[in-house]
Amino acid sequence: MTAPNPIAVTGAPLLRVEHLTMRFGGLVAVNDVSFTALNREITAIIGPNGAGKTTLFNCLTGFYSPTVGRLTLRHPDGREFLLERMPGYVISQKAAVARTFQNIRLFSGMSILENLLVAQHNKLQRASAWSIAGLLGLPGYRRAEKEAIDLASYWLDRVKLLEYADWQAGNLPYGAQRRLEIARAMCTEPVLLCLDEPAAGLNPRESAELSELLRFIRDEHKIGVLLIEHDMSVVMTISDHVVVLDYGRKIADGTPEVVKNDPAVIRAYLGEEEDEELPEIVARDLGVDGSEGHRTGEGT
Amino acid sequence: MTALPLSRSRGIQWSAVLREAGLTAFVAFLLTVPLVGLRTVDRPTGLTIDARFDEVLVAVFLVFIGRLGLGLIREGQALLVLVLALLATGVGIVAPLPTQVLEVILVGGGLVIAIRATVTLVTNRSTLSQAERDKRMDVVAAKVQHASRWLAPIGIGFALIFPFLPFADRHLIDIGILLLTYIMLGWGLNIVVGLAGLLDLGYVAFYAVGAYSYALLATIFGWSFWVCLPLAGLFAALSGVLLGFPVLRLRGDYFAIVTLGFGEIIRIVLLNWYEFTGGPNGIIGIPRPTFFGIADFTRTPTDGMPAFHELFGLPFSSLQRIIFLYYVILVLALIVNVFTLRVRKLPLGRAWEALREDDIASASLGINRTNAKLAAFAIAAMFGGFAGSFFATRQGFISPESFTFIESAIILAIVVLGGMGSQLGVVIATFLVIGLPEVFRELEQYRMLAFGAGMVLIMLWRPRGLLAHRDPTVTLGGARKAPSGPGSAAAGGVS
Ligand SMILES: Nc1ncnc2c1ncn2[C@@H]1O[C@H](COP(=O)(O)OP(=O)(O)O)[C@@H](O)[C@H]1O
Ligand SMILES: [Mg+2]
Asked: Whole-model pTM?
């Protein structure tokens, strides 16, 4: 893609966040944030720790109900969902929003394949006629289960875990657990995938593979991705659009190029007073000090 | 690992071993003096205190010997200790001892130490770390679990022919019925506790609802057992839903406490609603089950039904009804088992396990937590209700006394002891918790003590239960062999 402004080219609006505010007692974790995420785009949400990124996700996926604001999800087929009014499980079930968690939440005692079948619960539950057809062992359910296993195998193959399918999820190494969580989210067949720091704890090679996977999900499955990430090598190389939060407020919004040169962003990452040591690290992360975007990739 | 040969070459450190044994014996002395040594005796002149120093002495001596044995095992004398322990066990079995308690202590203690010595001899290790021991137990659990593929048919086959075996007298069949009732309750509760991960401390409430449903329907309307059984299950399930709606929002401890309260509320209602339930007097004259409404088990049926023995041309025997009851509870229990085994492979069962593992992640995948938990609760309650109505028809008499908290605790203990979620574990635990005390009837008064000691031991040695091993409900096959148990992660650097 050579287009300078991806917003003009890529998909239709998928998620509209309007005046989202989330208060915890006196603390305003998210403060009047508005932005739009487009279909078939990776929208990164960045900001220092405590900026309110995870809280934003929790509002989106129904774990918190926002104090103020509207969250509209518009499916490619035109159906609209007001997420702030739906309980968490309905958001996944009807509005097809899937998410991962900052601190991995797998069903660690269950096998990897089972993790992916749980993700297809609603589909299978219908096929098993709320367990009745399943208990009787009717062929309709068996067919549905086979299809579910096929979908699971497809994603396991994608995240390079196919040969570990029967392992207990908790026995996987950390990086594999992160990938499994993404595969599990994808098995719900979402239109919007929300990833909370998927590269945290990954080594550079794993991060690069993750970037590859996210690009694949965007381009081949044609869905929107919301990505919270601290690893700037990932953010700057794969996102189409970056939203920057600081102390709950949105301070910048635009393409990676625009955002990383935004003075407000640099200030948020550096703090008010100029420090000798900190700027170097952060500047390299953000890729501002004159270096090109691709240098940051091998830098970390 | 090199510590063992070193200590062996140093010879036995008698002073250390003796000191340790002495210290343990001293602690035992401090504990037994007030607990065993003093006994209140009710005399016509009033309450007096008797001293029983001989028993204290015996207890302290046994503790000293036991600890000495363990110490010697650690010092590399496992073979010697094994022989001595087996000898003690043999003496305990053969020789006439003054009290049966002494016999049990001698036999039990001897066996435990013998097992310990054998383990040491076999593994050539005297001490295992918790993690190592856990891993080994996991391997054993996995083996047993896999063996259940052929163990289960053998067990069921044995259960099927059991009443006709030559040694099966009335007493044994009664014990069989009792065991099967608890196995069924354990399997039922396993759905809630083992699969869905909800700690239900009031399961006996549903047992009570089932029992009273049958008793009232049968005594008031005169309906037969086979009509009332499904109704009793239905009522129990309804009460499960009624309880579930408000409390399933609660988490962990709060949930457990509310279910405990619910169990007590049901019992107190039964106790006080005199006009309806008969209060503390209970309900008497609950009809016995008929042979599927075709024949009756009495010698001369009064209500026009043919007598069972006449219909089948058998001589009359009161055992026929007992055997029939045995088969009824066997089939009921097996239904619960088959249901659980099947539902585990269905989306509903997987959703339960997912909720147990992480309910937030489950919600994020579109699982309606309330519905899934309600389903678990209602289904388990229904099975509890079935068991309850069976209990009522078997006893012919029920009162609130049969449905106290201790029943819930025993059923829960069976599930936890067996290894949460393990069907075979429930069976083994039932034999331990219900079967052993039945066999050692004379030791009735020590039952709760042994029960408590057993639970403490399990919590120390195997906190996840005897057979806590879980096999995947579905496998892709052909893929790389899965390792069993935690901590065996391979491949790839863990960051
Ligand atoms: N459930 C909660 N109750 C109270 N405060 C919360 C809660 N969740 C988040 N917060 C607060 O909101 C702020 C934003 O947190 P979070 O969204 O986790 O930040 P991050 O951008 O690092 O993901 C933090 O100050 C945090 O302490
Ligand atoms: Mg966060």
From this structure: 0.80
